[in-house]
């Protein structure tokens, strides 16, 4: 690592329920230092208009500007760089003048219902997986584009920018398509790390809509004069492409030592799997619904998307609306006192994707499984967390079997690292130690890639993770309890999946 003074790097991290601007202070001096602080947090509230669920992208962009302004005020100087990471698959369409053609559509909108079947009639699922390595999710970018093929908006579009690239474009005026997020579109070949042109051609997807591909660490322009004026910053301020899919940044910030680890990046979704050197494109992998997304430094994120804490978030909204809500910390304490594994559901069930009345849907799923139906917020919360732990176990076990790589530790990063009950249950379910933290893994990964691009630190992922470990005090959970009870619950859910 180079000998540098600590530099502040701004990480724009947009999640499905909130956005954050964090500042990471990085130095490569001696053994290196790394410190992260939250500067500004703002809500992400999707809006339904005329029957379509949209992201309020201009509100999010305003939050980004407010955060950059606050970052300058907090540090007394302009950041040494800016990086942007967000959720995957969604995009904005621009016209020939570079103007946005309407608010981006939310991936949970119903417009892709039935689209996968229409795509499969042209490109069979096994051929699609062999070409792109992406798991089936009904809202993948490919399905969004084919569903919109007859729309006037797509016909008028001259540029498509994924959400982090759209924010970067507004900040810099320069357009690019960052590869880790592009790999979630189902239009990238994970072997070549380039467009899967035969797939796009067969389905009538115009790849010229996409800006040129760029990788983590590539320059993405400088803040425009009007952005500098709006934020009160003094330029030049470079913007760097990071792992712009937030999971790519989060996995880069897994504080692992060595290669024998699994990860669970938790938040609205749980993304559980392994970091590999090459994709796994077997038919068995496709049937197991594993995805091969691209990561930092040429890695592959071999993982399964699991419904995640969305289940609990939607329950909390429902209970707040009907007056039975209570503080989350109290609810988790009550859930910890509920006997475990009395009620479980398949957290991968597509029935849970859409918003609305999640407690009822969980009760219905419990009836289908044939187990006990949970009553009240504490029992439902325990059902959700037991079910997520079982889904984490299944993904970790399947990833090892399908890839041929064994692990001895599970790292839980992201917001769920704060959830002690979920971490403990994941350790018990997997029968492996769980190391929890950092909670702000995406922001840490974002900052580390920026710092390396700026020359503040040097090295590969191993070096970046070593620097990160020195800045953290993660919590470790050892497995305990009755493994046979988890085995029985897993068998029950396997039977329900087979019957579905």
UniProtKB/TrEMBL annotation:
Protein name (database record): Rhamnulokinase family protein
Domain Carbohydrate kinase FGGY C-terminal: 262-454
Signal sequence region: none
Keyword Calcium: no
SUPFAM superfamilies: Actin-like ATPase domain
Similarity comment text for this entry: Belongs to the FGGY kinase family.
Superkingdom assignment: Bacteria
Species per Swiss-Prot/TrEMBL record: Streptomyces hebeiensis
């Amino acid at each position: 690592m180079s000998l540098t003074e600590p530099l502040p790097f701004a990480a724009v991290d947009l999640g499905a329920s909130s956005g954050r601007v964090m500042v990471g202070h990085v130095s490569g001096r001696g053994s290196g230092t790394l410190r992260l602080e939250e500067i500004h947090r703002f809500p992400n509230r999707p809006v339904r208009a005329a029957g379509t669920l949209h992201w309020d992208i201009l509100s999010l962009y305003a939050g980004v500007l407010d955060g950059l302004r606050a970052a300058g005020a907090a540090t007394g100087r302009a950041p040494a760089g800016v990086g942007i990471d967000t959720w995957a698959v969604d995009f904005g369409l621009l016209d020939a003048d570079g103007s946005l053609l309407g608010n981006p559509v939310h991936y949970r909108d119903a417009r892709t219902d039935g689209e996968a079947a229409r795509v499969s009639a042209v490109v069979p699922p096994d051929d699609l997986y062999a070409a792109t390595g992406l798991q089936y999710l009904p809202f993948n970018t490919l399905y969004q584009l084919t569903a919109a093929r007859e729309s006037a908006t797509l016909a008028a579009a001259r540029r498509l920018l994924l959400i982090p690239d759209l924010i970067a474009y507004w900040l810099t005026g320069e357009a690019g398509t960052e590869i880790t997020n592009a790999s979630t579109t189902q239009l990238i070949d994970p072997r070549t790390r380039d467009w899967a042109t035969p797939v796009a051609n067969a389905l009538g997807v115009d790849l010229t809509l996409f800006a040129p591909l760029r990788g983590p660490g590539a320059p993405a322009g400088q803040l425009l004069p009007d952005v500098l004026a709006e934020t009160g910053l003094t330029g030049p301020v470079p913007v760097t492409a990071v792992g712009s899919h937030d999971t790519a940044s989060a996995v880069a910030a897994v504080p692992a030592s060595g290669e024998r680890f699994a990860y669970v990046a938790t938040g609205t979704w749980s993304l559980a799997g392994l970091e590999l050197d090459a994709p796994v494109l077997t038919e068995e992998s496709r049937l197991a619904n594993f995805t091969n997304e691209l990561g930092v430094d040429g890695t592959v994120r071999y993982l399964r998307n699991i419904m995640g804490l969305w289940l609990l978030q939607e329950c909390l909204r429902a209970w707040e609306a009907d007056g039975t809500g209570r503080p989350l910390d109290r609810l988790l304490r009550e859930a910890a006192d509920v006997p475990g594994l009395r009620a479980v559901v398949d957290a991968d069930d597509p029935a849970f994707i859409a918003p609305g009345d999640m407690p009822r849907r969980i009760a219905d799923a419990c009836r289908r499984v044939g187990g006990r139906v949970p009553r009240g917020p504490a029992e439902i919360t325990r059902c959700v967390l037991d079910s997520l732990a079982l889904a984490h176990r299944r993904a970790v076990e399947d990833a090892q079997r399908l890839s041929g790589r064994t692990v001895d530790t599970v790292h839980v990063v992201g917001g769920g690292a704060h959830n002690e009950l979920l971490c403990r249950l994941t350790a018990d379910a997997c029968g492996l130690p769980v190391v929890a933290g950092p909670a702000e893994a995406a922001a840490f990964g974002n900052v580390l890639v920026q710092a390396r691009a700026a020359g503040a630190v040097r090295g590969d992922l191993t070096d970046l993770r070593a620097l990160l470990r020195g800045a953290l005090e993660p919590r470790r959970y050892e497995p305990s309890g009755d493994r046979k009870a988890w085995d029985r619950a897993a068998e029950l859910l396997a039977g329900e999946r087979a019957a579905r």
